[in-house]
Amino acid sequence: MRVLGVASASAALALGVAGNALACDISEFSAEAKCDGAKGVITVTDVDPSGVPATVTVYLENNGADVKKVGEQVVKGSREGVTITFDEDWKPNAEYRVHVKAEGYVDEDIKPNLITPATACKKEEKPPAPPAEPTPSDSNSAPAGDTGTPAPSPSKSESTAPSGASSNAPSPAAGAGDSNLAETGANSQTGIIAGIAAVLVVIGGGAVFFGMRRRGASSDR
């Protein structure tokens, strides 16, 4: 009987140790700040082989105080490890507190607090677009104000002046005096004509005088 009692106690102790070894423990949780492309994330991995559900809560810290609650998720670990992800655009050298609570097993923070890398996640830079090349329509376009319609050519009547137009138009005068003389008919022979007219007047007057004298003499006889 004594032997059986010792054996039972040994078996119970072994089962207790094994149960404690399989129980959820804070050492089975780890946190890390990563980059998912240009976006920052915080991951928490649970390697608890017993698969005890645990609630993981992440807080942003500043001078030992919680600034904001990043998020909260439930994880069931495995021997291979189960990872949950929190979207967080973390800043370089930022501090986060990660708390794990599994009812009846663990209720504490992952130590030490998570410190993010000194380099932020790089955003993908798009290469600059090449300069736009002018299209043929742009290079061959007509200047501003040109509608592309050719101007109508002048008609025959507009392009050719009438034959008589130049003969009827007075020629440009050399001076005001010359134009007046041309219009009145005066020229360099005006003095000669005036002298001939005066002689004719004198001759005519003499003829009239002698004619009247002869007529008076005849009447006296």
UniProtKB/TrEMBL annotation:
Signal peptide (residue range): 1-23
Region (Disordered) location: 117-184
Top-level lineage group: Bacteria
NCBIfam families per UniProt: LPXTG_anchor, strep_LAETG
Protein name: LAETG motif-containing sortase-dependent surface protein
Species per Swiss-Prot/TrEMBL record: Streptomyces bullii
Keywords: Membrane, Signal, Transmembrane, Transmembrane helix
Biased composition (Low complexity): 159-179
Iron-sulfur among keywords: no
Transmembrane segments: 192-212
